[in-house]
Amino acid sequence: MTKRCYHQLPHFSTPTHIMNPADTDEGTPVSIKIRERIKAARKRFNANDNIAEFIQPGELDLLLDEVEAKMKGVLSSLVIDTDNDHNTDNTARRVAKMYLKEVFQGRYVSAPPITEFPNAEHLNELMIVGPITVRSACSHHFCPIIGKLWIGVLPNEHTNVIGLSKYARLAEWIMGRPQIQEEAVVQLADLIQQKTQPDGLAIVMEASHFCMAWRGVKDMDSKMINSVMRGSFLKDANLRREFLSLIPQKG
Ligand SMILES: [Zn+2]
Question: How many helices and strands, by DSSP H and E, does the chain display?
Fold first, then answer.
């Protein structure tokens, strides 16, 4: 990727050293600058894409200020008196921080560092990790998605081994974005596949979507279950059955 420099030196063509606003990036919202870099690299920036490589040091804090200002506008359009209502006077800042640094952090920071080890013990037995608690929000309503996840791995001698807790960290990174559950399981499978190269990989996610409980059909009990099966889990029905039977009864 070619890096473009956005911090040009001021022009000294005028004796008074007054900068022409057109010559600088002053005043351009940081979100626009980041967006331009992504577009120049012809990359996608959907809600569940990670854009960390396009954010320069210090820009996340500028984004925070920008989102806060926009959130203030949303509260104002909701006709909430943030000047006099002490409950909401700092809500815009809190929401901006929650989105950028907490619940959607998986869009703005790079993947957690993970050390892969060669499979020295030649492990070749089915291994199941879970339940891992997953927290996200749906791309459609920005309502929470809370659930559980199980990962089945069938290693071979060429598979890289990663620590058990690392699966949870990878899941947290993928889920820390506005998500669509069926896309989230595929993103997570691709990531684990790429990091560990197992013989077979299976993922099952079961989650409650608050946009169904809080609004819409207001169904408190419905859950969505998604699975991804790869490699030997696709070819071997017995292995698939074994994995599914070892996952605690859902519901
Ligand atoms: Zn939704």
Answer: 9, 7
